[in-house]
Specification:
- The protein has helices at about 15-25, 25-35, 40-45, 50-60, 60-75, 90-95, 105-120, 120-125, 135-145, 150-165, 185-195, 210-220, 250-270, 290-300, 310-320; strands spanning about 50, 80, 85, 175-180, 200-205, 225-230, 240-245, 270-280, 325-330, 335-340.
- Strands 6-5-4-7-8-10-9 form a seven-stranded mixed β-sheet, with helices on both faces. The protein has a three-stranded antiparallel β-sheet with strand order 1-3-2.
- It is an alpha/beta fold.
- The chain has two domains: about 25-95, Winged helix-like DNA-binding domain superfamily/Winged helix DNA-binding domain (Arc Repressor Mutant, subunit A, Orthogonal Bundle), CATH 1.10.10; about 135-340, Vaccinia Virus protein VP39 (Rossmann fold, 3-Layer(aba) Sandwich).
Length: about 350
């Protein structure tokens, strides 16, 4: 009988490919961001060019752009035709800066704002404290003002889905909407676009609201926007709103402030009014989806109390605040919207 220990080494069906892939996970967003910053996808959209032509157009080096373009082709963001490169349907739709579907701004936010804090992850895990809390006014006002425009297009499809679901165009009377932590104004803008009867009160820090105004002007709804500057928990909200939106803010506030904020928004809505919340919601066991759990770590390195919360947890906070009928609305975003009603 052979009693020798099994030979050292990996099981034959187990390979470290996924770990090797993770080791280079930092590279794709940096490659995409440098190409977007130099408008390479704009230049290659529907017109194939060589690396030499890209280098001339961007005033860069042939060696540098040859390496980057080949890598982007290997990642299927460009198609290579001989020595020429051209956009794919995916990059043509989402990475050309002049198109309304452009969502590459998120990559600028990732590389410029998020990665620097993630590099302190070891220390943050040890202390439980971030290198800088972005949801505090002394730092956060500048932080959010710098990137809210970059992520406008990532929320716009979901905001339009919400507007269609609420069917505000069918209401003859004026509709009052409260857009809390408005940022770029994307949620209020989509509601205002859906009906000329919608009037929006946008709440955010004073340094962010000028960005909101620029977007409202761009989309032709600025005359129906009113601005309320201040901290979202301490500023006084008017009452009797038909709808209130809270777009991707609970995760940075933490549980205590989030619960207080939901109670405050309940008081601002009229009976029958709807609250709509956009969030990255993990499952109840917090085992997925992966992006919701990674985003929880993002909150670890950027806030003192932030986290991501399952639907069941948020719906419990809504009931506690006095809302009823907490429900999910499927939308073309990272997670369903959470809706509830003030009875």
């Amino acid at each position: 009988m052979n009693t020798a220990p099994p030979a050292a080494g990996n099981p034959p069906d187990l390979r470290p490919d996924r770990i090797m892939q993770m080791a280079w996970g930092f590279a794709p967003p940096l490659l995409l961001e440098v190409a977007i910053r130099h408008r390479v996808f704009d230049y290659l959209d529907g017109a194939a060019h060589t690396a030499e032509e890209v280098a001339a157009d961007t005033r860069g080096s042939v060696r540098g752009w040859t390496a980057v373009l080949n890598a982007l082709a290997g990642l299927d963001f460009l198609r290579k035709e001989g020595d020429r490169y051209v956009t794919t349907p995916e990059s043509s739709t989402f990475l050309v800066t002049t198109k309304p579907s452009f969502c590459g701004g998120l990559l600028r936010h990732t590389t410029r704002h998020l990665i620097p804090s993630w590099l302190h992850l070891e220390e943050t895990v040890r202390t439980g404290m971030p290198p800088g809390a972005v949801n505090q006014a002394d730092h956060g006002e500048t932080f959010f003002a710098e990137f809210v425009s970059d992520i406008f297009n990532t929320s716009y499809p979901s905001a339009r889905t919400l507007a269609a679901h609420l069917a505000l165009e069918k209401k003859a009377a004026p509709v009052r909407a409260l857009d809390v932590a408005t940022g770029s104004g994307v949620w209020g803008i989509a509601l205002a676009q859906s009906s000329p009867n919608v009037h929006v009160t946008a709440v955010d820090w004073p340094g962010v609201l000028p960005i909101t105004g620029q977007h409202a002007e761009k989309f032709g709804v600025a005359s129906r926007f009113t601005y309320l500057p201040g901290d979202i928990l301490t500023v006084d909200y008017p009452a009797d709103y038909d709808v209130a939106t809270l777009g991707h803010i609970l995760h940075s506030e933490g549980e205590a402030r989030s619960r207080a904020l939901l109670r405050k928004m309940h008081g601002a809505l009229k009976p029958g009014g709807t609250i709509a919340i956009a969030e990255f919601t993990p499952n109840a066991e917090r085992t997925g989806p992966p992006h919701t759990l990674i985003f929880a770590v993002n909150m670890l390195v950027h806030t003192e109390h932030g986290n991501t919360y399952p639907f069941a947890e948020v719906s419990g906070w809504l009931r506690e605040a006095g809302f009823v009928d907490a429900r999910e609305l499927p939308c073309p975003g990272p997670a369903p919207l959470i809706l509830a009603t003030r009875p």
